[in-house]
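Dear colleague,

Following up on Tuesday's group meeting, I ran the structure prediction for the two-component complex that the binding team flagged. I've pasted the input sequences exactly as they went in, so you can double-check that nothing got truncated or mislabelled along the way. The structure tokens for the whole assembly follow below. Feel free to forward this to whoever is handling the docking comparison.

Inputs:
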Amino acid sequence: MAKRTWNRRALGQTTLTLLTWALGLLWIVPLLWAITASLRPLNEPIQRGDVWFGTTLSIESYTKALSLAPFGLYFKNTVIIVLMILGVQLITITLAGFAFANYRFRGQKVFLFLILLQLMIPTAALLVPNFATIRWLNLYDTRLAIAIPYFGSAFGTFLMRQAFLEVPQDLVDAGVLDGCSWWQLLWHVYLPPSIPTLTAFMLSSVAWHWNEFLWPLIVTKSDAARPLTAGLVRFTQLGEIGAQWSLLSAATLLVAAPLLVVFLIFQRRFIESFLHSGLK
Amino acid sequence: MTTRRSSVGVKALPYFLILPTLAFVSLFTIWPTLNAIYLSFFKQRLNIARFREPTFIGWENYINLFHDPTFLKVLKNTLIYVVGTVPLSIVVAFLMAWLVNQPLRGRGWTRLFFFHPTVLPMVSAATIWMFFLTPDYGLFNTTLAWLGYHGPQNWTGNPNLALFGVMLVAFWKNAGYYMIFYLAGLQNLPHEVFEAAQLDGANLLQQLRYITFPLLRRTTLFVSTIAFIGAFQTIDHIFVLTQGGPSNASNVLLYYLWQIRFENQDVGRASAVTVILILVLLVFTVSNVWLSERREESQYG
């Protein structure tokens, strides 16, 4: 009897493992296929039923893609935009989160509500009036135009407020007794235990803005300001690309690679930081 | 917990601290919302000389929109898109989370397989899928043919399939992202409850139905809210795969908004579409929270 239940359990476990792996492979296949296709020699176009590798592996597609569009420049733009957003956000959300967690002031609820409106009305929905604002600020076709709508973050402010509220009152009182100024209190008492939340916010901000496409497409027209995503779409529309799939796959992977590699290296921390932060 | 924790600093300090955030949110969320409402009552077309300056026309933009078959089609597509992708991604996300939370061999890898689309830019994901879905020689169709399906293969060029094609990509990309939140939820569930349930002889389905789902209600509320808002604000894959076509078969609200503003240069009408989009988002977010709280009350109250 005991043995039979053990067998049933083992069988159940095996079935679950197989099911998980089947679903997992289903999910990864598009990426794997794009990788293999990008490694085909350029003079061996993919034909019907021609599923995996060509006769040899070749990185021709990558060098050709790099020569057809300024991916280096796009990469630089993306990095600058992402860091610009992140840098400003870290300051604005920390200060605002601290104000909402540590003080009670007149109009507090109203101000918090106004800021949280940004969660319900995403910036993407406001592209028409925001485009007019960018024109009015004379920022059209600059990297700042891509970044500036995200300098204030309702999501970040809310996360930091929640993290700061978790800091024990005793610690805050001790800090006050020691004669901390407000910024010492923030820096030495509130911030250290809130680092996991801040890290999680940083990761999601970078991932989000690295991948953003529509807004950059709207507010840029030249390569000088264009990020990787908008550059890729322009690349796919180049006349000489046509249906050269190995070339397209190579360009796609070039754009996706930086974040994908960073993610693979830090994946454990990446997932854990999501798991253990206020993002739930 | 009250928010008065310490009163270090001057009285005006909290206002200074929230000022940067409030300023940017005002400039890029609150002001544009009001501006869109205002402009939606005007006729303004930038590509027609005599309509370059806005003229007040009352509700005409809205009336025209609801008499326009294209707009009605876009609304219908949006509804299909949202209803077709959001619940399915949530269910699959839960399934993925539940599977990779079991002590299985190689679950680190499968977790990675499910999650990786999250870090891909949507335009890259869409380009990969454009290739994957190519008629005749794409792996997707090759596999379907091998499984015995010989129907139409042009998933982005066929009017009956195009919407399905873009939905498929969104589903593939988002399920792994939502999985993370369920995984976090599952790992925070109290073990003792399940042990007690097992002792009482509750089977797996009963445990899911009576313990797991109710305890994960907050996670589901959060995930369904971000999934819903996400479904409205991400159209990058439509740019890559179909451009809303063929004949608007895969056109949804935000893409239509972009077209009206940047292809037709019709600011007034685009503002009206913006207002409609905002209203839809607000109504959903508020009712989702409200419904979830009511369910909670009826359960525990």
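Chain B has one domain: 68-300.

Cheers,
M.
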